[in-house]
Amino acid sequence: MLDALIPWYTTHARDLPWRAEDRTPWGVLVSEIMLQQTPVARVEPVWHAWVRRWPEPADLAKEEPGEAIRAWGRLGYPRRALRLHGAARAIVDEHDGRVPSSYEELIELPGIGDYTAAAVASFAFGHRHPVLDTNVRRVLARAVSGRRYPPNATTAAERRLAEELLPYDDAPTWSVAIMELGALVCTARAPRCRDCPLTETCAWRLAGSPEHDGPPRRGQAWAGTDRQVRGRLMAVLRDADGPVGKERLDAVWADGVQRERALDGLVADGLVEPLAQGYYRLPSGPA
DNA sequence: AAGGCGTGGCT
DNA sequence: TAGCCAAGCCT
Predict the structure, then answer these.
(1) What architecture is domain A226-281?
(2) A32 is known as an active-site residue
(3) How far is CA A265 from CA A108, A222, A238, A262, A273, in A?
(4) pLDDT by residue (tens digit) across A201-221?
């Protein structure tokens, strides 16, 4: 089933740098972390700058964590930068500076969960692991299960299906192909079924493209949340050369209770380092 | 296991 | 316009 995926991929794949012939495991790992919840177009320039500046895990491991956060720029979810820095240090300390190749070792690294461990093991090392990201889940929901969207949380049935479908011959190419189809054609909001190589056998199409049934899909509040305040605080610290006085942080949000809560949260998360005299900076410390 | 966690483009 | 959405992870 889904035999048309790889032929479609060979003619429609985007030319992305972390897929190039000369890709490195470190470059693949960096790309996968950056791509967590962040679109390709925003990742690409930051990825180039990152791997040029830190070509090996050891290069990043020597830096302060704050430098990683600053280089992360506006990709969002800056905890990922902190965890990537932590992963680089763990790779140096525990793996002789080389990105480990096994799923079991990869998933032990900070910021690497099931998806990213499977993706790096597959795309950097050619191993066979089901790569179950949001694109794959959506394509399988439609093409196989006849539903517009997959369940909110990944189910055992989805894992079983992904494992059953994954070929033993060149699993990584199959995985990147189904991901690419989800990203370019079988998109969430307005799928381009006319351009889809699976359209004639797609269970969702054959069922008449029914609307989503099941519990509503969870949205993410933004305006007025602590996340918005945290984002503003981090922007000030990122754009500053050195320590920042409290009064400059106080200027980003009027509600003092919420502002303090957000700042405390950033400190607790290790994203901000408090200094004496009411000054703050991006973290210099070990973690 | 449900919710927190950034950012910006697209419809 | 205001949501919706983007290669998730962690607790």
Answers:
(1) Orthogonal Bundle (1.10)
(2) yes
(3) 25, 17, 17, 5, 11
(4) 999 999 999 999 888 887 888
What type of residue is A226?
A: D
**A287 has a pLDDT exceeding 60:** no
At the top level of CATH, the class of A24-123 is mainly alpha
Pairing of strands A273-274, A244-245: unpaired
CA distances from A62 to A59, A218, A248, A260 (A): 6, 39, 30, 32
Distance (Å) from CA A232 to C1' B8?
A: 14
Q: What's the CA–C1' distance between A235 and B4, in Å?
A: 19
Ordered by start, the domain boundaries in chain A are 24-123, 226-281
At A250-275, the pLDDT tens digits run 999 999 999 999 999 999 999 999 99
Quote the crossing angle between the two packed helices A114-123 and A25-34, to the nearest 10°.
150
Integer Cα distance of A183 and A53 in angstroms: 29
